[in-house]
Each structure stands twice: as C-alpha cells, then as structure tokens.
Automatic annotation (TrEMBL):
UniProt-listed Gene3D superfamilies: PucR C-terminal helix-turn-helix domain (1.10.10.2840)
InterPro entries reported for this sequence: CdaR-like_regulators (IPR051448), CdaR_GGDEF (IPR041522), PucR_C-HTH_dom (IPR025736), PucR_C-HTH_sf (IPR042070)
PANTHER family hit by this protein: CARBOHYDRATE DIACID REGULATOR (PTHR33744), DNA-BINDING TRANSCRIPTIONAL ACTIVATOR ADER (PTHR33744:SF1)
Species in which this protein is naturally found: Streptomyces litchfieldiae
Highest taxon of source: Bacteria
Protein name as it appears in the record: Helix-turn-helix domain-containing protein
Similarity-based family: Belongs to the CdaR family.
Domain CdaR GGDEF-like: 126-246
Record-annotated PucR C-terminal helix-turn-helix domain positions: 296-352
Pfam families, alphabetized: GGDEF_2 (PF17853), HTH_30 (PF13556)
C-alpha cells in the first residue's frame, strides 16, 4: 500500500530511547562510545541491506516519541532545554548512523572495484583457470562462451580510473549501451574497452568518444578482432597492443587502427630471418650512397605511401619533384630494382616494410 513503511529490526533501536531520556534529564551530548555504537549500527545496516531511509525514519520516530514524554521526564520548567538536548542528541545519532552507513557502502564499492580490476587483469592476460574465470565473469555481465573484442586507446598522457576523460568516456558508453554490456578500465596509462564481439559498433563508438573527450590530444585507438572463449579477450587485447606498437615502428598516423587491416605485417615478420635476408639483399646496396641508406629508404617509404605519385611524395618529403626523381633514379642504379616497374616495385615495397619492422638501417640485421 502506498505510504506504508517497513519496520527495521528492533535491535537497531535498542538503547536509543534510554539515551534520549538520559539526555533530556542531564542535557549532556552523546558519549564517544554511544556515537561509535551508532556508527557501527550504520555499517551493519548497510551490510545487511537495511535502507538508510528506513533507518533514519525509525530513529526520527523514536525521537518524536521521546519528545512526547519530555514533560514527564524533565518537568514543565525544563521542557525547552530538554527538547534542545534531545534534538542535538538525535542529530548526533543520525549523523553517526549515516557516517557508518556511508563508510560501509564506500568499502563495498572499493571492494567490488578491486574485484572488478582483478578480474579484468586476469581476463586480459589469460591468467587463472578458465572455469573459475567464467564463473567470476557472470558477476560482471560477461559471457565468456561468446566472442569479445578489445579496443585500446593511447592518449597524449597516462590515464587512470579517476581521470576526467575516463569518466566522460564511461558515462557515454553506459548511457548508450548499459553498464553490464561494456567493461571499461585503464591499463598502463591506456584506456581499455572490452565489448561483445557481435556488436562492433561498441568499440567503434568507444574510439569516437575518447577522441571527442579530448579533441586536442594525439589519440591512437587500436581495435582488436573479435575472438571466442575466455582466451578470445586475451587474443584481441594483444592484437590491439601489437597494432599500437606497429604504429610506432611504421610511423602510421591513423587515428584508428584495426587489427584486421594489419594482418599482413605479422605474416611478413613471422620468418624474421627470411625478412632480414630480403632487406639485406634488396636494400643493402643503398648503404653505399652518400649519407647512407636511411634517406633513400625514407624516400621509398614516402613514395609508396603516396601511391607512387611523385608530386605528392615530394611534398611529404619537402623536396622538389626533380630532387625526388633523382633519388628514385639513384635507388634504381644501386639496387637494380625500378620503383616504376610493378613487379620490382612490390619487392622494393616489401623490403621497405621489412626495414621499418626491423628498424633498419638504425640496427644491424
């Protein structure tokens, strides 16, 4: 029935009326032990699921009943003074109850957050028994039997759980998709989003929101592919991390990197020795040029990135078209491979990619 109240267990009010009666007679305030006892009751109420509203209301009702008995307890001449004392004591009691209640809730939140972070860490790194991990996953709304995709965002500064960008991104994701559908955390200063693999729009939205949250920052967001099972989250997470590492090594300037678009690079580096042999045999002769191989490898990289359009490549390198053409001719003479020939161009471009991946010529092969 509307307006009906649920009574709290009598133990929460035990001794309260006696305290108020004594306060009315003596005018004293609550003792340290009495405040501690009320605070402990507040903590107990939070842990036992008693609502703070019900707890406060019942104490106010008890206070009103004590007020009604004031004339008998203190005498007519002292009613005003006793009433003030009772109200002050009630204020102390309710404040202590609320403090204890809030402290218990804060502890519960921190405990749940610690458990959540531990679960996500185990999930990202594939630690622990798969069965136990799946059992813990249900608490956070994750179904590990399904596929999941992981997105990792790296910004202009390290981020933690309390950073405004993290909070704004979390609020945006929760508002659109719901808290139990998305896991958002921070790891090594980066933002990490774990989402169901059958809803790719979530990681795409995550990528858009982190950049919108700090539009002037130099963001790079890597999207791992969706993979099934408990190990799928770990696989997708490492794909995203590898994409960020690849962006650094290859000087990729895309704001969003998709692991599905970068699959050729792991293939090329799977046989490191074969790739090193290709770089040495194809690009090794460039070391004979004045200034070494570095500027000529950079020229080839810009030329291929520009779609083999000389004017665009020259603009990217801040060169004249004539200077760029001279460099390409020099590369042809030294390597015997013509960047304008389709087959030879493929060999050169593969070797340049290998040089970037192996950090040649800065490092010896």
């Amino acid at each position: 029935m509307a307006g009906a109240r649920e009574a709290i267990p009598p133990s929460y009010l035990e001794g309260y009326a006696a305290i108020l009666g004594d306060v009315a007679l003596t005018g004293r305030r609550l003792s340290r032990d009495e405040i501690a006892a009320r605070r402990a009751l507040g903590e107990r109420a939070a842990s036992e699921g008693v609502g703070l509203r019900d707890l406060v209301r019942e104490h106010l009702i008890a206070t009103r009943l004590a007020w009604r008995d004031l004339p008998d307890a203190a005498g007519a001449r002292q009613v005003r003074s006793a009433a003030e004392s009772v109200l002050a004591a009630a204020e102390q009691a309710v404040d202590a109850l609320a403090e204890g209640y809030g402290r218990a809730q804060l502890f519960a939140v921190r405990r749940d957050e610690a458990a959540r972070r531990e679960f996500i860490d185990d999930l990202l790194h594939g630690r622990g028994d798969a069965g136990a991990l799946a059992a813990r996953a249900g608490r956070f709304g994750v179904r590990l039997a399904h596929s999941h995709a992981v997105a990792v965002a790296r910004g202009p500064e390290p981020y933690d759980e309390t950073h405004p960008v993290t909070r704004r991104t979390a609020d945006a994701l929760d508002g659109r998709f719901g808290r139990r559908l998305v896991l958002l955390t921070t790891k090594d200063g980066r933002l990490v989003c774990i989402a169901p693999g059958n809803e790719p729009e979530i990681v795409e939205y995550f990528a858009a929101r982190v950049r919108a949250a700090d539009p002037h920052g130099a963001w790079c967001v890597a999207l791992g592919r969706a993979h099934p099972g408990p190990g799928g989250v770990t696989h997708s997470y490492h794909e995203a991390l590898n994409a960020l590492e690849l962006a650094d090594r290859m000087d990729l300037d895309a704001a969003v990197l998709r692991a599905a678009d970068l699959l050729v690079f792991p293939v090329l580096t799977r046989d490191r020795q074969a790739m090193a042999d290709l770089v040495r045999s194809v690009l090794g002769p460039l070391s004979e040029a004045r200034g070494g191989a570095g500027p000529l490898v950079e020229t080839l990289d810009a030329y291929f990135a520009a779609g083999c359009v000389a004017t665009e490549a020259a603009r990217r390198l801040s060169l004249s078209v004539r200077a760029l053409t001279y460099r390409l001719s020099r590369i042809h003479r030294l390597t015997g491979a013509d960047p304008a020939d389709p087959l030879q161009r493929y060999t050169l471009q593969t070797a340049v990619i290998g040089a970037r991946l192996l950090d040649w010529p800065a490092r010896d092969l």
